[in-house]
Amino acid sequence: MDASAEILIVDDDSQILILMAKFLRANGFRAHTARNGIEMAETLKRVSVDLIVLDLMLPGKNGLEICRELRRISSVPIIMLTAKGDETDRIIGLEVGADDYLPKPFNPRELLARIGAVLRRTRGAASPAVDRGGRNFSFAGWSLDTMKRELTAPSGVVVDLSTGEYDLLLAFLEAPQRVLSREFLLDAAPNRAIDVQVSRLRRKLDGREDLIQTVQNAGYLFATGVVRD
User: Fold this and answer.
1) Domain segments of the chain: what residues?
2) Among 100, 116, 144, 169, fewest CB within 10 Å belongs to which?
3) Cα(221)–Cα(211) distance, rounded to whole angstroms?
4) Which terms under GO biological process does the entry name (predicted)?
């Protein structure tokens, strides 16, 4: 495990906070805790965190509202904790920007595994594109800087991407005008809801379904040319 990783746990159950923080610290992480959105915001002013474990059911602003607000200003990875079997909340969580989800109750070792997987994707996603010949991709007036992990719209506005959205876009840009299966995309951007991730990415690209086209019974096609700088 990466002992330098700073993890923020946000949950209104004090016992769960104590247990999760103790478990993560025992496994090499630096764990911080908050019981609601206000305490989370105060912690984020003091600490630059690498990942947030965010409970859905919180007093005041719930986890979905907090996740949506965070995504407007940050691409920090978020793992959402949801009620067991509540598929609607899980899908909404992914749509508003969560990178992964975990239903309660859960085995702490599964949380540990998911944190490790999300951090590996976050910290390692940019290097393959650089190794294969360039820092920047340009397409249809858009540009992606893989060193900064920044997507810039034709208007010049920087569009914030979650870890999953970034990984998915990078997979498309490295194989433009080719049909990519859902299985391939699942390997490139591990997530149990690729269709949801594609929908979110399309919205970030101004809703342009002509850029990412659905190929029935086959997968998805990034349908425009890509220039690698």
Assistant:
1) 4-121, 134-226
2) 116
3) 8
4) regulation of DNA-templated transcription
